[in-house]
Specification:
heterodimer; A: about 475 residues; alpha/beta; Rossmann fold; 2 domains; 17 strands; about 20% strand; B: about 325 residues; mainly alpha; Ammonium transporter fold; 15 helices; about 0% strand
Chain lengths: ~475, ~325
């Protein structure tokens, strides 16, 4: 099958050789170590703790949830005592209220766990409730609650369910390992999603630099007529939701719209595995696969961890840093879009897909020079923006012009900064102003809504 | 506790830098420079060295005097100096080259903010300044192969066309550069080789040079000069190859957008032809590029690319 792709984009060196052939190893938290469960590991309303300091919790116990639809509950991944509820640093760089559990090492499981069901006998409502009840969110990075994604408005029929197996971020190999090692579970997870949308076609999109994954997934899909494996060109950001949809269906998700508007649901590989576990194994989301890589770590590889472990405990458990060439930069996620960390004392969360330990050479930051207007940022921007102009407007502080030049459509993939020969921090400056302008826009929308409501109320009172 | 570097994304960068781009431009100019020295002798070499050294010196001096970071290591001043020398006749005095470099670097480039901020091509601005100030020195053409005191004044093929006669030079002479003209402009083959190198290295794209040259070819073939329809001379003799591959593609003074580049190149081709046929000069490349340089902000304003997932325009939406 011909490999598909989108327009523009970049080809950074992939760095995957460090960890690609390392099988997934299970890393369990040590006895007496503390695990942190932040109340917000997803897009939507933060959870509230269901437990108090001093309580004893068991593996699989729901310890926090929110009544809001757009939210996702949180589960204990070890057994032990709740020793504190306090703010803790998460990979995104903010402090989030977290439940702290001291692991008693017994891994005592709560009753009712492991009651897997046959999804073919379940109703759609039951499946959605089970996915929500298991705390499944998009594990690719955004953390969009999966039950919301799988339940789009009635007027947007879904004809494609896409598994985002592009893994276009350099260095990351966790999705690749899952595809090579557990392809049947991915297919099973996808079949569950297809049960919800019987008219849809399942497409697993994999970049062609992962032939083993393509082979394994193709084999696992044999005999299933509504699922196909689609090879994709190796190019960044192929795994961007909008660009994956475009590559496979040639549909453009309109500015500001969600994938469902283009008839598509896109989920990451590990998310689909989490759906399979939730339904078929009856286990909520309390683990994930993390790629730890970079030249600054002694044993680069792919590790299945319990969420809540600190990254320090993870690094210690796998042999620590490379002492001869210790890292100077830590990145949560991939090198194109992952935020940097200033400490290892960070809670791993549902969306932690990678930890990169970059040595001095890998972390080299070149000096920023004048823009020479070479236009390479424009030639490579997958969104068709003019990053050099947005950078200029951002530095000038002209938010209005920034929005007029579609600054809010930037997906922050960093292709512009990657290509820039003047080494300008284009993506960073755009991201900063984007945050400000998006905030203003949201505030204006909220004000308009409040005004409309007040007017309607006044009108109603008049009558 | 170790201190970890915190920085914005992305954390990997391409190897390409301003310096590597400028180095590629210099490499691409080597064949034409060598041919220039071969045809016009050591005088050509002296002029090139003088223009390059003075361009770098004025850039350094300006930045030192204004206490700005010194950026001569990015090699852009070397490119400006070299291009200026290549746009001068070999017989021009050395001091003319130095004055031209000073104008190009200080007035056309640094006063507007330095690298990337110049709205016109510095080397061409320098050349235009010299042409206006020292017309005799700038238009005394010597024939190729005659050096120093033996230099014989000749008319360039385009000047002969302007005068209404067919050029003396054969087509082969024009192609290999065995004709009168500026140091770097005569050997069309060497310039094309350099241009292909730049396109292959993704420093420039093919659009601007190819469309520019094609426009001149087609228009001169259609209109002709007083009945002399010799488009091959029009494109291979004179400054078109040098201008199309190395000057019209200057990043700072040409459009960034793909559509803009097409308009820019068409405009350059049209103005070059108009100047050659209806204007007072036999040559029109420099001025056409300078004029189009001025139109770049306007062109860019109307050629902004359509974004991915663009919403229908507000006007259309209202109609619907």
């Amino acid at each position: 099958m011909q490999a598909l792709t989108f327009k523009r984009g970049v080809h950074p060196p992939d760095g995957k050789a460090l960890s690609a052939e390392q099988p997934i190893q299970v890393v369990l938290p040590k006895e007496n170590s503390e695990l942190f469960y932040p109340m917000s590991q997803h897009i939507g309303a933060p959870c509230e703790p269901l437990v108090a300091v001093g309580d004893h919790v068991k593996v699989g116990q729901k310890i926090a949830e929110s009544p809001a639809f757009m939210s996702s509950p949180i589960f204990a991944s070890v057994s032990g005592e709740v020793v504190d509820i306090r703010p803790m640093l998460v990979p995104g760089g903010v402090m989030v209220k977290s439940i702290v559990v001291k692991n008693d090492g017994k891994m005592e499981e709560i009753e009712g766990l492991n009651q897997g069901k046959d999804y073919t006998t379940m109703t759609n409502e039951e499946i959605l409730a089970a996915i929500k009840g298991a705390g499944v969110v998009g594990l690719g990075g955004a953390g969009f609650p999966t039950h919301v994604k799988l339940n789009p408005p009635k007027d947007t029929p879904i004809d494609h369910i896409l598994i985002n197996a592009a893994e276009c971020e350099p260095y990351l190999t966790c999705d690749y390992r899952l595809m090579v090692e557990e392809p049947e579970r991915i297919v099973k997870g996808l079949q569950i999603m297809l049960k919800l949308h019987p008219n849809a076609k399942g497409v697993i999109g994999i970049e062609i630099n992962k032939p083993k994954a393509i082979e394994a997934m193709t084999k696992a899909c044999e005999g299933i007529d509504n699922i196909v494996v689609q090879p994709l060109v190796t190019k960044f950001p192929q795994g961007s939701e909008k660009h994956l949809i475009y590559a496979i269906t040639k549909r453009e998700v309109k500015s500001g719209a969600l994938p469902a508007s283009a008839g598509c649901i896109v989920d990451n590989v590990d998310t689909v595995v989490a759906i399979e576990r939730a339904i078929c194994k009856g286990r909520p989301l309390m683990r994930r696969v993390v790629t730890v890589s970079g030249k600054g770590i002694k044993n680069p590889g792919n590790y299945k961890i319990r969420t809540g472990m600190t990254l320090r405990d993870l690094v210690d458990a796998i042999g620590g840093f490379n002492e001869e060439n210790p890292p100077v930069k830590l990145i949560a996620g991939g090198p194109m879009m992952g935020p940097t960390l200033y400490t290892l004392d960070v809670a791993s969360v549902k969306t932690t897909s990678g930890l990169l330990c970059f040595t001095k050479e890998e972390a080299y930051i070149p000096e920023e020079r004048n823009c020479i207007r070479c236009g390479k940022c424009v030639d490579h921007c997958p969104m068709g923006l003019m990053p050099f102009m947005l950078n200029f407007l951002a530095l000038k502080g002209d938010g209005e012009a920034f929005v007029a030049h579609h600054g809010l459509d930037c997906i922050e993939c960093g292709s512009c900064s990657y290509e820039c020969p003047a080494k300008r921090q284009l993506a960073q400056s755009i991201r900063a102003v984007k945050k400000i302008e998006a905030g203003k826009k949201a505030a204006a929308a909220a004000a308009a809504r409040a005004k409309a409501e007040a007017e309607a109320k006044a009108k109603a009172e008049k009558n | 506790m170790a201190n970890f570097v915190v920085s914005g994304t992305p954390h990997v960068r391409s190897k390409e830098s301003i310096q590597s781009i400028m180095r590629d431009v210099i490499i691409a100019l080597v064949p034409a420079s060598v041919m220039g020295i071969y045809y016009f002798g050591v005088r050509a070499l002296i002029l090139m060295v003088a223009a390059i050294v003075s361009a770098v010196f004025f850039e350094w001096l300006y930045e030192k005097l204004l206490k700005k970071p010194v950026t001569i290591s990015d090699l852009s001043a070397v490119v400006t100096g070299l291009l200026l020398a290549m746009n001068m006749p070999a017989s021009a005095p050395v001091w003319v080259a130095i004055v031209g470099s000073a104008f190009a670097i200080i007035f056309a480039k640094q006063l507007f903010g330095g690298l990337g901020q110049n709205f016109i091509n510095p080397a061409l601005a320098g050349r235009a300044f010299l042409l206006a100030s020292y017309p005799t020195e700038m238009t005394s053409w010597t024939s190729a192969g005659n050096f120093g005191a033996d230099a014989v004044s000749v008319a360039t093929p385009l000047a002969q066309l302007k005068g209404g006669v067919m050029p003396d030079a054969s087509f082969t002479d024009v192609l290999v550069g065995n004709i009168g003209g500026c140091i770097g402009e005569t050997c069309a083959i060497a310039l094309i080789i350099g241009g292909i190198y730049l396109i292959a290295k993704h420093v420039i794209n093919w659009k601007v040079p190819v469309i520019y040259i094609a426009t001149v070819f087609v228009l001169t073939a259609l209109i002709g000069r007083d009945g002399l329809r010799v488009p091959v001379y029009e494109i291979f003799a004179g400054g078109l190859m040098l201008g199309a591959f190395f000057m019209a593609t200057d990043y700072a003074s040409s459009p960034v957008t793909a559509k803009g580049q097409v308009i820019f190149a068409l405009g350059c081709g049209l103005i070059t032809t108009l100047i050659r046929i209806f204007g007072g000069y036999p040559e029109g490349v420099s001025y056409s590029i300078l004029i189009m340089n001025l139109a770049v902000p306007l062109i860019e304003r109307f050629t902004e690319p359509t974004i991915f997932g663009a919403l229908p325009k507000v006007k259309e939406a209202k109609k619907a």
